[in-house]
Amino acid sequence: MVVGVLQMRLIIRDSRSLKDxxxxxxxxxxxxRHRFNVSVAEISDDTGTGLDTRKQALxxxxxxxxxxxxxxxxxxxxxxxxxxxxxxxxxxxxxxxTETF
Length: 101
What we know:
Radius of gyration: 13 Å
Structural class: alpha+beta
Helix content: 25-40%
CATH class: Alpha Beta
Mean pLDDT: 93
CATH superfamily: TT1725-like
Number of domains: 1
Number of strands: 4
Order of helices and strands: EHEEHE
Number of helices: 2
CATH architecture: 2-Layer Sandwich
Strand content: 25-35%
Strand order of the largest sheet: 2-3-1-4
């Protein structure tokens, strides 16, 4: 079994409140989950303050498969889709990391 993990860092420039940020993150999570059948969650960064920052968000994606190449392909698709979705929501994907186990 192979587990693919993706962390994406978003900047939400138009966010004026935590409610605005949550709306953007929820929409992004729902669209990715629906399109790719992966697990998606908002996560906090190493400092533990990521969930309370109104202009930034860290989103984690995970999937299990039997082929590492398939995991890489799906996670690359998630990154491309997240860029497009985020731009439509007034956000920007500024960084990401993928890992397979």
